[in-house]
Amino acid sequence: MKTLRRDWQIVCVVCALDAPYLAEYLHSLRSRSFLPDLLVVAEDDHNVRVILDALAVDAIYVLPAMIPREAFWITLLQHFTPQRDVNIVVRAGVQVPEHWDARLVAAGQRADSAVAVSPVCARHALLTVLSGSARRPGLPVDEMDQWLNDYAQGREFPVPVLLPSCMLLQGPSWRSLPAPVGSDAELAYQLRTAGLSLVATDQVYVDDSHLEYDDGTASLPPPLLDAYLYRSPLAAMRHALSELAERCERPPLMKRCLPVQLHLGHSWGGGLARWMEDFIGADTHHNHLVLRSVGDLSAFGQNIVLYRGADMDVPLQTWSLCEPVLSVSSGSIEYREVLQEIIAAYSVESLVVSSFIGHSLDLLATGLPTTVVMHEFFPFCPALYAMYDSPCHSCTRERLSACGRNNPYNAFFRFDSDDHWMNVRERFAQAVLADNVALVAPSRSVVARYRDLEPRLEGKTVHVVSHGLNDALLESLSRVRSTARPGAAEGERLRVVALGRLTREKGGDIIADACAALAEFADIWLLGTGESGARFTSLPGVTVVSHYESGELGTLLSQIQPDVGLQLSTVPESFSYTLSELWAAGIPVLATPVGALRERIEESGLGWLVTPAAPDLVAALRIMHADRSALDATAILLGRAGMRSSTEMVADYLALEPANGGVPLARYYLPRRSYSNPYGPVGQSSGAYALHINPQRPYRQALEEFLLHTASKADQTPSLPGWLGGALGGGMRWCARRIAAGRAAGGKRV
Predict the structure, then answer these.
(1) Using the 8-state DSSP alphabet, how is residue 487 labeled?
(2) Please, are residues 72 and 124 in contact by the beta-carbon 8 Å criterion?
């Protein structure tokens, strides 16, 4: 791996006229630079000396009072000899974007035979990103730089000039220049005549619009000048960037120059998708990409889809596998090629694996720092929960075979043999022992059972990092605590709430069996059930809200004011987000004693455990109804308890990252490209619209989006008479509105 050199020096050229803004400028320059090594070369002016002394900046005072417009470089190099092999010269007042210095150095390393590398700019005729004569950008330097990264080809290209505002000098040539000449244009000519290359990079933009200088193009032969103007990589993007600047249109997404982390998961949604969204939202130390497997029950990795973030919106790229991954592959040449392509094309520096479903164990063989988050027991266990009658603590080949035939929880992967699973276990256990692979579990119960199941993990550190809730959700749930109602009046019905899907493994059968008895003394709210809540909608005393947005949960709980929450999983949870949400809202919890639920409740004392049976649930709630003192005392404790945030979670993950052995050179190849340019990259059509359905969305929402898309097509198609297209479109929009209204209503109370 090529790494970024780190021995450059920033040289800031200062004259007396720069004094009024010098202190503020140097602070900005340092804050935007990757390395702080700064030398000021200045005119010997009293005001400048006072400012630089106060800032304790290294400075030499060697420049004359006047620097000719056409001879900036000649004048500077006559009075200052660069001492480093790499020097980046910038004139005071020139506005620079984030990590401008590292990006110029990276361009110099890519074009290592060049003696000078210029950024693109606002002012210079050949290097401006603006068309026309005004060359006054209407956007700040970072926003113009962002647009540049979203349009640029990512090239270093030859130029016949020395940019007077900012330039990188590299190599020994600058310490042994030929005899002095009269202008920068002549110096550039001498260097090029001697076979030395001057280049510019289209990946860094600086704003030098305030400067006045001679651009050195007057002496260029017209054919050469025309070629540099119209054949350089800048020619294709000038019109677009000029219009954006003139409209003062901000980029839709601002990216920072950060290492790229690739997350890997499936497309099922659920807690894994939630964790990924919260992690990416809270992490300010990486740029993130997400690679998901997409398929169905016949093969879970039919397509491998790359997204720019946690949202499954418009993919960046999609790969259809000739040989789909049925469950998990122990090794796939197709998958390896896809992975290598992504790592190279997107400068990926680390991986976070949340699920191997639909993926290949090749994920563990990239050599990059890789974190495996143990949300589930896959790929060791095809039943995901490691549950067969009861939680498993060992699994022989014979037990695996019986599990495949008889275990209702082992219902997903029906086409892979026992030999396949035994081989996957072997390869997985060996691969995760590598030094570059870190294992993380959200609870100690996961660690203990995984080590029981796979004893080879005893020799591998497994870090326990519990999940956190995102800051916005924490804030909304904390308001539920602050508005909690006073103690219940005598005879008042118990208010009970359960969050999430109510499938069998989430305790849906237990609640269904208990509802009739609970209706005698309790009201029950079932929130976020999805389609699993349909069987509860006609039951007395039960309110079902099938769907809510994350930001609506606090409002719903404030309206309900529950006395107790239920978490009745019948399979071992690895963490339980719903437990965290209920606690964050100040709601005591009654839970089944499995997995992380037992661990978290026993350790905290902020709830109670009940065996997973309807009669026991009814009995426990009846006791709480009769005597609310334990509920009230626990609610008081919850009101004082601190709740863990996703920001704290991410900080714990960052602490596990290996020490940086050097910055990969690839990090600074178009480091701010957002892949969110609404107008498309240069040379590609951006007018096409495609319908993208997120596989995580509920069926009704997907149908609503499909109907709206089809209605739009019906309106516009020339294949139908106008009246018919309008009628069809109107009918489909009416259906879509009905579906939307039903989703918004969300539930039914009887």
Answers:
(1) S
(2) no
Three-point CA angle 181, 187, 192, nearest 5°: 140
Highest averaged pLDDT of the listed ranges 47-61, 303-317, 702-716? 47-61
Helix then strand count (H, E) for the chain reads 23, 25
What would the CATH number be for the domain defined by 260-382+417-464?
A: 3.40.50
What the block records as the tokens of 747 is: 């539930």
Of the candidates 99, 82, 96, the residue with the CA atom closest to the CA atom of residue 4: 99
Give the side-chain half-sphere CA count within 13 A for 446. 27
Q: Under a CB-based contact definition with an 8 Å cutoff, are residues 432 and 450 in contact?
A: no
Q: How far is CA 34 from CA 4, 101, 111, 693, in A?
A: 11, 6, 20, 40
Per the structure block, which two tokens stand in for 411? 């219902």
Spatial contact of 80 and 127, defined as CB atoms under 8 Å apart: no
Burial string for 30-55 (b: 16+ CB within 10 Å, else e) reads bebbbbebbbbbbbebeebeebbeee
| pLDDT mean across residues, the chain | 92
The model's pLDDT over 360-402, given as tens digits with 9 standing for 90+, comes to 999 999 999 999 999 999 999 999 999 999 999 999 999 999 9
Average pLDDT over residues 80-109: 97
Q: What is the DSSP string of 233-267?
A: TTHHHHHHHHHHHHTTPPPS-PPPS--EEEEEE-S
Q: Which CATH superfamily is domain 9-246 in?
A: Spore Coat Polysaccharide Biosynthesis Protein SpsA; Chain A (3.90.550.10)
Q: Give the C-alpha separation, 406 to 408, whole Å.
A: 6
Taking domain 485-643, whether its CATH number is 3.40.1260.10 is answered by: no
Among 48-62, 488-502, 523-537, 713-727, whose mean pLDDT is lowest? 713-727
pLDDT more than 70, % of the chain: 93
> What digits encode the pLDDT tens for the residues 473-491?
999 999 998 776 666 666 7
Contact by Cβ (8 Å): 538, 567? no
Give yes or no for a contact between 481 and 639, defined as CB atoms under 8 angstroms apart: yes
Domain residue spans of the chain: 9-246, 260-382+417-464, 485-643, 699-749
The answer to whether 9-246 and 485-643 have equal CATH topology is no
